[in-house]
Protein backbone atom coordinates (compact mmCIF):
# COMPACT_ATOMS: atom_id res chain seq x y z
CA UNK A 1 0.00 0.00 0.00
CA UNK A 2 1.18 3.53 -0.69
CA UNK A 3 1.15 5.65 2.46
CA UNK A 4 2.05 9.30 2.92
CA UNK A 5 2.62 10.69 6.41
CA UNK A 6 2.47 14.46 6.80
CA UNK A 7 4.11 15.25 10.14
CA UNK A 8 2.88 18.58 11.44
CA UNK A 9 4.77 18.77 14.71
CA UNK A 10 7.75 20.97 15.46
CA UNK A 11 9.05 18.13 17.64
CA UNK A 12 10.27 15.13 15.69
CA UNK A 13 9.36 12.00 17.63
CA UNK A 14 6.93 13.94 19.82
CA UNK A 15 3.37 13.03 20.78
CA UNK A 16 1.65 13.15 17.39
CA UNK A 17 4.61 11.47 15.64
CA UNK A 18 4.44 8.65 18.18
CA UNK A 19 0.77 8.00 17.42
CA UNK A 20 1.60 7.90 13.69
CA UNK A 21 4.46 5.50 14.37
CA UNK A 22 2.15 3.15 16.31
CA UNK A 23 -0.40 3.37 13.51
CA UNK A 24 2.18 2.31 10.91
CA UNK A 25 3.23 -0.58 13.15
CA UNK A 26 -0.42 -1.65 13.30
CA UNK A 27 -0.60 -1.57 9.52
CA UNK A 28 2.06 -4.25 9.55
CA UNK A 29 5.23 -2.16 9.60
CA UNK A 30 6.95 0.07 7.09
CA UNK A 31 8.59 -2.90 5.31
CA UNK A 32 5.15 -4.04 4.15
CA UNK A 33 4.16 -0.70 2.61
CA UNK A 34 5.59 2.09 0.54
CA UNK A 35 5.70 4.84 3.14
CA UNK A 36 6.78 8.43 2.45
CA UNK A 37 7.37 10.68 5.45
CA UNK A 38 7.21 14.44 5.09
CA UNK A 39 8.41 16.32 8.17
CA UNK A 40 6.91 19.70 7.45
CA UNK A 41 9.08 21.50 10.03
CA UNK A 42 12.16 20.55 7.98
CA UNK A 43 10.69 21.43 4.60
CA UNK A 44 10.95 24.55 2.49
CA UNK A 45 7.37 25.29 1.55
CA UNK A 46 6.43 28.79 0.47
CA UNK A 47 3.01 30.18 1.24
CA UNK A 48 0.36 29.84 -1.44
CA UNK A 49 0.18 33.10 -3.40
CA UNK A 50 -3.34 32.52 -4.66
CA UNK A 51 -2.12 33.16 -8.21
CA UNK A 52 -4.77 30.85 -9.64
CA UNK A 53 -2.48 29.18 -12.17
CA UNK A 54 -2.77 25.71 -10.65
CA UNK A 55 -4.03 23.19 -13.14
CA UNK A 56 -3.39 25.47 -16.11
CA UNK A 57 -0.83 24.87 -18.85
CA UNK A 58 1.66 26.93 -16.82
CA UNK A 59 1.70 24.34 -14.04
CA UNK A 60 -0.46 21.34 -14.89
CA UNK A 61 -1.28 19.14 -11.86
CA UNK A 62 1.05 21.08 -9.56
CA UNK A 63 2.00 24.56 -8.44
CA UNK A 64 3.95 27.33 -10.15
CA UNK A 65 6.16 27.67 -7.07
CA UNK A 66 9.10 25.26 -7.21
CA UNK A 67 10.04 24.05 -3.75
CA UNK A 68 9.70 20.95 -1.58
CA UNK A 69 6.01 20.66 -2.48
CA UNK A 70 7.01 19.26 -5.85
CA UNK A 71 7.91 16.01 -4.07
CA UNK A 72 4.64 16.01 -2.12
CA UNK A 73 2.28 16.27 -5.12
CA UNK A 74 3.01 12.91 -6.81
CA UNK A 75 3.37 11.07 -3.49
CA UNK A 76 0.08 12.51 -2.23
CA UNK A 77 -1.82 11.81 -5.43
CA UNK A 78 -0.67 8.19 -5.59
CA UNK A 79 -1.16 7.45 -1.88
CA UNK A 80 -4.01 5.21 -0.78
CA UNK A 81 -3.56 6.21 2.86
CA UNK A 82 -2.67 9.74 3.99
CA UNK A 83 -1.75 10.17 7.64
CA UNK A 84 -1.90 13.66 9.16
CA UNK A 85 -0.22 13.93 12.55
CA UNK A 86 -0.30 17.30 14.25
CA UNK A 87 -0.44 18.95 17.62
CA UNK A 88 -2.96 21.71 18.13
CA UNK A 89 -1.25 25.09 17.96
CA UNK A 90 -3.46 28.00 18.93
CA UNK A 91 -6.61 26.19 18.02
CA UNK A 92 -5.61 24.59 14.73
CA UNK A 93 -2.92 22.56 12.96
CA UNK A 94 0.64 23.92 13.03
CA UNK A 95 1.49 26.64 10.54
CA UNK A 96 4.00 24.41 8.74
CA UNK A 97 1.33 21.78 8.06
CA UNK A 98 -1.17 24.46 7.08
CA UNK A 99 1.31 25.82 4.53
CA UNK A 100 1.47 22.36 2.94
CA UNK A 101 -2.31 22.09 2.82
CA UNK A 102 -2.69 25.54 1.32
CA UNK A 103 -0.37 24.44 -1.47
CA UNK A 104 -2.37 21.22 -1.97
CA UNK A 105 -4.93 23.59 -3.44
CA UNK A 106 -3.18 22.74 -6.74
CA UNK A 107 -4.61 19.20 -6.52
CA UNK A 108 -7.86 19.94 -4.66
CA UNK A 109 -10.19 17.64 -6.57
CA UNK A 110 -11.92 14.29 -6.10
CA UNK A 111 -9.39 12.87 -8.57
CA UNK A 112 -6.55 13.45 -6.11
CA UNK A 113 -8.38 13.35 -2.75
CA UNK A 114 -11.19 10.89 -3.44
CA UNK A 115 -11.14 7.23 -2.41
CA UNK A 116 -8.26 7.67 0.02
CA UNK A 117 -8.19 6.82 3.70
CA UNK A 118 -7.29 9.98 5.62
CA UNK A 119 -6.06 9.23 9.11
CA UNK A 120 -5.84 12.13 11.53
CA UNK A 121 -3.86 12.15 14.77
CA UNK A 122 -4.28 15.24 16.90
CA UNK A 123 -2.56 15.77 20.23
CA UNK A 124 -3.64 18.66 22.40
CA UNK A 125 -4.02 20.24 25.81
CA UNK A 126 -7.56 21.60 25.75
CA UNK A 127 -9.15 21.48 22.33
CA UNK A 128 -9.07 19.46 19.10
CA UNK A 129 -12.45 20.15 17.43
CA UNK A 130 -11.40 22.45 14.58
CA UNK A 131 -9.12 19.89 12.97
CA UNK A 132 -11.59 17.03 13.18
CA UNK A 133 -14.33 19.21 11.74
CA UNK A 134 -12.01 20.44 8.95
CA UNK A 135 -11.01 16.98 7.81
CA UNK A 136 -14.58 15.73 8.05
CA UNK A 137 -15.70 18.40 5.61
CA UNK A 138 -12.87 17.57 3.21
CA UNK A 139 -13.68 13.85 3.30
CA UNK A 140 -17.34 14.53 2.61
CA UNK A 141 -16.62 16.98 -0.20
CA UNK A 142 -14.10 14.79 -2.01
CA UNK A 143 -15.40 11.29 -1.29
CA UNK A 144 -12.61 10.11 1.01
CA UNK A 145 -12.78 7.96 4.14
CA UNK A 146 -11.78 9.64 7.40
CA UNK A 147 -10.43 8.16 10.61
CA UNK A 148 -9.59 10.42 13.52
CA UNK A 149 -7.92 9.85 16.83
CA UNK A 150 -7.34 12.64 19.32
CA UNK A 151 -5.34 12.48 22.53
CA UNK A 152 -5.11 14.96 25.36
CA UNK A 153 -1.50 15.20 26.51
CA UNK A 154 -2.17 17.34 29.55
CA UNK A 155 -3.28 16.85 33.13
CA UNK A 156 -5.69 19.63 34.17
CA UNK A 157 -5.27 18.77 37.86
CA UNK A 158 -1.52 19.37 37.87
CA UNK A 159 -1.63 21.84 34.96
CA UNK A 160 1.22 19.96 33.29
CA UNK A 161 1.87 18.39 29.91
CA UNK A 162 2.03 14.60 29.98
CA UNK A 163 4.08 12.69 27.38
CA UNK A 164 2.14 10.33 25.15
CA UNK A 165 4.18 7.38 26.46
CA UNK A 166 2.11 7.72 29.66
CA UNK A 167 -0.99 6.66 27.73
CA UNK A 168 -0.33 3.05 26.64
CA UNK A 169 -4.04 2.49 25.97
CA UNK A 170 -4.05 5.31 23.44
CA UNK A 171 -0.91 3.99 21.76
CA UNK A 172 -2.62 0.62 21.48
CA UNK A 173 -5.66 2.37 20.00
CA UNK A 174 -3.45 3.90 17.30
CA UNK A 175 -1.96 0.46 16.61
CA UNK A 176 -5.43 -1.08 16.27
CA UNK A 177 -6.49 1.75 13.96
CA UNK A 178 -3.54 0.79 11.75
CA UNK A 179 -4.75 -2.79 11.60
CA UNK A 180 -8.27 -1.64 10.80
CA UNK A 181 -7.24 0.76 8.03
CA UNK A 182 -4.94 -1.85 6.47
CA UNK A 183 -7.81 -4.35 6.36
CA UNK A 184 -10.31 -1.78 5.03
CA UNK A 185 -7.84 -0.89 2.28
CA UNK A 186 -7.25 -4.55 1.41
CA UNK A 187 -11.00 -5.16 1.20
CA UNK A 188 -11.39 -2.03 -0.89
CA UNK A 189 -8.74 -3.23 -3.33
CA UNK A 190 -10.56 -6.57 -3.58
C1 LIG B 1 3.00 27.02 20.41
C2 LIG B 1 2.05 26.03 21.03
C3 LIG B 1 0.70 26.26 20.91
C4 LIG B 1 -0.22 25.34 21.44
N1 LIG B 1 -1.56 25.60 21.30
C5 LIG B 1 -2.46 24.70 21.75
C6 LIG B 1 -3.86 24.94 21.58
O1 LIG B 1 -4.28 25.94 21.02
N2 LIG B 1 -4.73 24.02 22.05
C7 LIG B 1 -4.31 22.89 22.69
O2 LIG B 1 -5.16 22.08 23.10
N3 LIG B 1 -2.99 22.61 22.86
C8 LIG B 1 -2.04 23.50 22.41
N4 LIG B 1 -0.71 23.24 22.56
C9 LIG B 1 -0.27 21.97 23.17
C10 LIG B 1 0.18 20.91 22.14
O3 LIG B 1 -0.79 20.75 21.12
C11 LIG B 1 0.42 19.56 22.83
O4 LIG B 1 1.43 19.70 23.80
C12 LIG B 1 0.76 18.44 21.87
O5 LIG B 1 0.63 17.20 22.52
C13 LIG B 1 2.19 18.51 21.32
O6 LIG B 1 2.33 17.46 20.35
P1 LIG B 1 3.72 17.13 19.64
O7 LIG B 1 4.61 16.49 20.69
O8 LIG B 1 3.37 16.16 18.56
O9 LIG B 1 4.29 18.39 19.10
C14 LIG B 1 0.24 24.15 22.09
C15 LIG B 1 1.63 23.94 22.19
C16 LIG B 1 2.53 24.86 21.68
C17 LIG B 1 4.02 24.60 21.81
Report on the architecture of this protein:
Helices cover 37% and strands 21% of the residues. The protein is α/β, with parallel strands linked by helices and 190 residues long. The strands form 2 sheets. Strands 2-1-3-4-5 form a 5-stranded parallel sheet, sandwiched between helices. Strands 6-7 form a two-stranded antiparallel ribbon. α5 (129-142) links the parallel β4 and β5 (145-152). α1 crosses α6 (168-189). The two termini are 13 Å apart. The model has no long low-confidence stretch (mean pLDDT 95). The protein binds flavin mononucleotide. Residues 9, 11, 14-17, 87-91, 123-127, 153, 161 line the site of flavin mononucleotide (FMN).
Search tags:
190 residues, alpha/beta, 5-stranded parallel beta sheet, two-stranded antiparallel sheet, binds flavin mononucleotide
Give a short synopsis of this structure:
With 190 residues, this protein is α/β, with parallel strands linked by helices. The chain is built from six helices and seven strands. Flavin mononucleotide binds next to α1 and β4.
Level-1 CATH class name = Alpha Beta
Q: Work out the number of β strands.
A: 7
The CATH homologous superfamily is named Flavodoxin domain
Strand order of the largest sheet: 2-1-3-4-5
CATH architectural label: 3-Layer(aba) Sandwich
Q: Catalogue the ligands.
A: flavin mononucleotide
CATH topology: Rossmann fold
What structural class do the secondary elements suggest? alpha/beta
- Overall 3D shape: globular
**Relative helix content:** 25-40%
Q: What is the CA-atom radius of gyration, in angstroms?
A: 16 Å
Poorly predicted regions: none
Amount of beta strand: 15-25%
> What are the secondary-structure elements, in order, as H or E?
EHEHEHHEHEEEH
Measure the end-to-end span.
Answer: 13 Å
Mind summarizing the main beta sheet? 5 strands, parallel
Average pLDDT over all residues: 95
Structure annotation, total helices: 6
Domain count = 1
Amino acid sequence: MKVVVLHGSSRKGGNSDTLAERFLAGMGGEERHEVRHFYTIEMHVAHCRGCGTCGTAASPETCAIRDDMQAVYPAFSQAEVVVLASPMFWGYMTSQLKAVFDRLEAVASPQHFGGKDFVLFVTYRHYYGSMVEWLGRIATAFGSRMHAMTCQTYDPETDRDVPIANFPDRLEEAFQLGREVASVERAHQG
